[in-house]
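Fold it.
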Amino acid sequence: MFVNKPLVLVANKVDIKKIQDLPSEKKKFFDQFKSENIPIVEMSTLMEDGVMNVRNEVSDYYELIYFFFIYKCCMISN
């Protein structure tokens, strides 16, 4: 389902516990994504912490996808 599609892993509820404070066996879940260079963004909607980081990370991918879409459309029309 997510093959060849940009991914961003968003970890919410970091007002309760941050990834760095998790036990090592639970950190392994996030290590899988790190090893594949998938961005991990921590946020807390309650504290409004990291929400803009999520927006920025996702908008970077959106701009990239939009650029390739426009590029392909121009290549097809020319």
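The mean pLDDT is 83.
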